[in-house]
Write a structure and sequence with these properties.
Immunoglobulin-like, 2 domains, twelve-stranded antiparallel beta sheet, 12 strands, 48% strand
Length: 213
């Protein structure tokens, strides 16, 4: 008599379940391997190209107004025209600049309101000139501000800090990185004119700027 072996429906269901689980695991392993390899390639390209920080320098800073509207309330009026030189030193990496804000400071005090610059793209080794007009109307300053200005007037020059905050993204081929916050700090040594309200103050020394990312 021949032996007949039958598999119960329960066993079939169990076997089918194992096959389904195995397929899911294989698909998960395949996709994980693919994305891991893609991220590794992007990371290796990033390490190989190693983007350098953008370079900035202050080419012009003209101060038209810098005086206290009231010595009692210590409110400052200011107007400054500045021009920044911007360069992308990378040969194979482009830069997207987003949300750029520029303002001026004197002895650690902000003396103008923030002015926004339009976002732009900077190609490989491209150079751009960024111009902005900064203005402050009755901005509160420290009580020592008037004394410091008088002392600098006697010395014939004033040191103004030009600061820019923003975000940038690196572009490598078709890949665009996430946003990185960066800060630019410049220093302008400016000569006093004989009349602060009518005579612009001319910069007496050009300056490079530091960039932090």
């Amino acid at each position: 008599m021949s032996q007949i072996s039958e598999t119960s429906p329960k066993h079939c269901a169990k076997k089918g379940g194992i096959n389904i689980n195995n397929r899911r695991k294989k698909l998960f392993f395949t996709f994980s391997t693919f994305f891991s390899g893609l991220l590794l390639i992007i990371f290796l390209i990033w390490l190989t190209l190693h983007p350098a920080k953008p370079e900035f320098s202050l080419t012009e800073a003209d101060i038209y107004t810098l005086n206290l509207s009231s010595s009692a309330t210590h409110l400052l009026n200011s107007s400054i025209q500045l021009t920044l030189f911007s360069k992308n030193p990378n040969k194979k990496v482009g830069i997207y600049y987003d949300k750029l804000l520029v303002y001026a400071a004197y002895r650690g005090q902000q003396i103008t309101s923030e002015a926004s610059l339009p976002p732009f793209y900077q190609s490989h080794e491209e150079i751009n000139l960024l111009t902005s007009f900064l203005q402050g109307n009755e901005l509160p300053v420290a009580q020592s501000f008037g004394y410091q200005i008088v002392r600098d007037r006697a010395a014939g020059k004033v040191i103004i800090g030009m600061k820019m905050d923003g975000k940038l993204r690196w572009k490598i081929g078709t890949f665009v990185s996430g946003a990185y916050r960066f800060n630019v700090n410049c220093v302008a040594i400016v000569a006093f004119g004989p009349n602060m309200t009518t005579d612009p103050l001319a910069p007496i020394q050009g300056t490079g700027c530091s960039t932090d990312i």
